[in-house]
Here is the input.
Amino acid sequence: MAKLKSNYEQTLWVRFIRWMKGGSDALENSMIASLEEKAEPNLISAEELAEREHALEEQHRKDLESERQFFDKMHSWSRTRGSRITDFLYRLMSVVICLAIIYILLNTVSQLPKFGDSNNPLNNEVSERYIEKGMEETGAVNIVAGMILDYRAFDTLGESHVLFIAACSVLILLKLNLDKDGRPAREKLDAEANDRVYEPKSDDILQKIAALLVPIAMLFGIYIVLNGHISPGGGFSGGAIIGAALILHLNAFGYEKTGRFFSYTTFRVVSYASLSFYAIAKAYSFFTGANHLESIITPGNPGDLMSAGLILPLNIAVGLVVACTMYAFYTLFRKGDV
Amino acid sequence: MELWQNIPFFCILFSLASAAFTSVLPVKHARRTAFIVISAVALMSALLIVKILPTGTSYTYMMGHYPAPWGNEIRAGILEAVTALIFSLIMLFSLFGGLSRLDEHIPDKQNLYYVMLELLLTALLAQIYSNDLFTCYVFVEIMTIAACSLITARSIRSITLVAATRYMLMNLLGSGLFLLGLTLLYDLTGHLLMSNIQEQVTAIAAAGAYQQPLTVVIVLISIGLAIKSALFPFHTWLPDAYGYSTPTSSAVLSSLVSKGYIFLLIKIIYRCIGFEVFASTRITDILFIFGLVGIIMGSVSAIREKDIRRMVSFSSVAQIGYIFMGIGMGSENGMVAAIFHIFAHAAAKSMLFLSTSGLVEVSGDSKMFRDLRGAGYRNPWAGVAFTIGSFSMVGIPFLGGFISKLYFATSAMAMPPESMMLVMLVLAASTILNTIYFLKTVITLYRPPMDGVEYPEFRPAKSFVFAMVCLSAANIALGVCSQPIIEAIRSGLHMFA
Here is the structure.
């Protein structure tokens, strides 16, 4: 026979079941009970009540006072000395850890192979082939261009997409949208209206110099991009110069005039077209290379403008992407739109 | 060279090229493109597994016209193929599961969100397949930026901005340490190709030269990647980053991004440094201790959370602790268990994040436990999925988490007695802690709602139901047919060496 329990309702199991069914648990019950408790009927006289209230008030005031003093003491400690101690410890620790890391890294560097030594592990068959056969195999006089755009083109393909993804991230963060009723957002209009507040509206000196400098900078950038495989330079550096020229033009002549030849659509189309060309061209080159197929791309005659196989078109693509990205960064940070 | 051997190259180039294409498409077509790309990558990876299994070896693939130490190279073995398949499948299901919430969370510029997802997939694939250390670094960079954008895509009162800034700072510190280690390693060996580096490192270690630089390199690379994958003392960026972003982002970040870095670390251990040299530097002990502490601390933080999304995020800290504990065991069995746990956790955690969002959706968009009462009845699919995911994380048999815990325990048997006791105690304690916070949540979900609160009728989206069913099936499959996967991991690790 099971033992009969008089307090059956209070057993652990029944309480658990009750809780599962949504019935409140012991804590909630006691809280509800205390709320529902009825006040005692008033049996004391008014004077006594007043006296009691007075005593209670007095007690309450004293409690408050002591509480305030206690809190002041605690707070002043944590605000002044306490926080000073933790701050100090924090700074001390960061300095100590940094010094330790600096010491370890310097010590490590001092034990590395000597810089410029001919017996370095760096001077192995890899760099030997780059230097000795680079021009012949890639057709680029500029060995660096041959390395980054032909030998190790996959890395550079990734690198150009780093730029692209950075531009996209900034677009997500900063590009202001049209309102619900299709008008430009208020912030954007404000930014465009206030654009000239902090700068002279049409500065003659700036405009004259820019009129002189922008075409030269543009041409110089294009020259560097186009000669990337022959002389020092290439898509990244040339593109940066073209981008800088665009930014100078924007600063001198304002959005309206720059917008005539460079808008958000231009940005999207140009960067899409260059990146796609880059990916497709390199995909062709990787595919033929890996499968040992005949490739229509030949190194050509090193030193000629139209040589070095894919390097020249790739440099142009990279240059366009870099120029667009630089200009887009500038305008996005300035007014939230390209 | 046969046509199927081009599959890794096709996967990488296809998703890379689609990213630029997606950026100029309107939202509807961008979404369709993303689905096509991710499914195509999953299909091709499955085909690769079928083709590569009978050969029993790995192969290298020349990226361009120049052979390996001069040009770039990718390499595919069975482990790479399996990882690519599982990662792309989980990304596909995460996108399906969060689809119904995307329009609400990301009202504009949604096509750029798909660009980020595609580039993230590219970066994952490139890290999985690449045989070149510097290529890995380039794609680590892409992954960092893409992950940041996944967090900021949904802006709620700048919480996500703060979270993303913190994420960015910590992750760039990790990337910086990794780059430093890579540079020093290049200086020591003169190579960037993984197999050549390993040759040189073995020679250096045998000769006993450059002992300190080599140790520093290993420490920098391990700690850098550990920061990026949120190992315990470096996990502070994690709860905010996972807790407030849109569900697809949380699922992808927790189950793929951090796992990609861990996979890269395992690859570097085996392919660059060499397992013996790595274990002899005792960095394994540090990872082991951090892992153990992380398991306990992550679970304790999860118990104290009142916000369900943050609780699930803190549980990730504990699970990352398991994986690093497996790596730190310094044995092949530990590594197998760690890799299996990567898969098991990826499948379970993505499902937990997605089902959590489904449960929050039916509780007046509140993530607090008191409002979640009865959510399991209001959205049954999400409730069941959350239960299965929790059971897997706790380690209930027939689910993925059980198998990995079993393998962790078995591989601990081969360790010295003190370490073995430590692992067993931590495993037992963490199981209890996991049970406390996961079962508390499951019970809350099935308690009747608070009195006087009316919830509107709710019908879950078809895409959500599909994702939940597929992910539950994946979890059960990982638990029931674990043997072929364990075998694949084991043979893949042998191909690594």
Remarks:
- Residues 142-177+199-335 of chain A form one domain.
- The radius of gyration of chain A is 38 Å.
